[in-house]
Amino acid sequence: MTVPSPPAVFDDSPAARKREQWGWYFYDWANSAFPTTVLTVFLGPYLITIAEAAANGAPYVDVLGFDVRPGAYFSFVVGVAAILQIIFMPVAGALADHTGRKKQLMGFFAILGALATVCFWFVGDGRYILGGLLFLIANVGFACAFVIYNSFLPDIATPDERDKVSGMGWGFGYLGGGLLLAVHLVLFLFGEDLLGIDKGTAVRIALASAGLWWGGFTIIPLLRLRNRRGAAPRRETAGQAIGGSFRQLGRTAMGLKAYPLTLAFLVGYLLYNDGVQTVISFSATFAEKELGLDTTVQIGAILMVQFVAFFGALLLSFVASRIGAKKVVLMALVAWTAVVAIAYFLPAGSAAAFYALGFAIAIVMGGTQALSRSLFSHVIPKGKEAEYYSLYEISDKGSTFLGSATLGMAIQLSGSYRLGIISLVVFFILGGAILAAVNLPKAIRAAGNEVPDKL
Question: Are 138 and 34 in contact (CB under 8 A)?
Answer without folding.
Answer: yes
